[in-house]
Amino acid sequence: MDASAGELNRLGALIKRLARIKGRSVMEVTMALLSTKTLRKLGYDGSGHLTPTQAKAAIAVTEIWIERSHGQHQQR
User: Fold this and answer.
1) Strand ranges, E, within the chain
2) DSSP3 helix / strand / coil % (the chain, rounded to 5)
């Protein structure tokens, strides 16, 4: 079963936001996210298709990265 359109749209929006914050391309952020240990442990196979569980984990990881990025900007 693939992730829902809503989950993928949320993930896409978060990836775009993080890319802007970090000054990276959407592709760079996406590739970094898809190569995380978290997604590998959840069985992500590199196919480009996420299960609902994998999508939720990817959303959570991206949100954490955004929070950490905001913290780094405040410390400067």
Assistant:
1) none
2) 75, 0, 25
Distances (CA, A) of 38 to 7, 21, 57, 64, 65: 17, 22, 7, 13, 13
Whole-structure pTM value:
0.90
> How far apart are alpha carbons 43 and 27 in whole angstroms?
21
Summarised one tens digit per residue, pLDDT across range 27-73 is 999 999 999 999 999 999 999 899 999 999 999 999 999 999 987 75
Q: Is the separation of the CB atoms in 19 and 25 below 8 Å?
A: yes
In the 8-state DSSP scheme, what is residue 43? T
SS (H, E, C) 9-28: HHHHHHHHHHHHHHCCCHHH
